[in-house]
Amino acid sequence: MDIVILIGRILFGAVFVGGALGHFTQTAAMAAFTESKGIKPGKLAVLGSGVWMLTGAALVIVGAWADLGALMLAVFLLPTAFLMHPFWNERDPQVKAGEQIHFNKDVSLAGAALALFGFFVTAGAGAGLQLTGPLFASLAG
Question: Which positions make up the signal peptide (predicted)?
């Protein structure tokens, strides 16, 4: 089962590595979009969130404090869903549908990240070929 957990960590984290790389390679366009949502300075927010995502994803993938990495991703995703993709404010049906898809994706990935957080904390270092045990092991009860 350890290899299945490792593959799952890699697949889950890869989404965020790709997203983070987009933050670094499409900074200007993403900063303009970010500022259109009222978040300023956009460039700093885009680069900072890219570093945050990449760090969280790397922790999950390599299994070094994977619980912290999963929590970081959830902390990124939930505000992003509400701040960047408020589909309820859109009037154009196509734009609204696109924003609702992004919102739902972010919320569902946040749920998965929180589930992984709980898994990593309760399973400890023994599951999934991790480099370290959980940072939040004391929460395991």
Answer: none
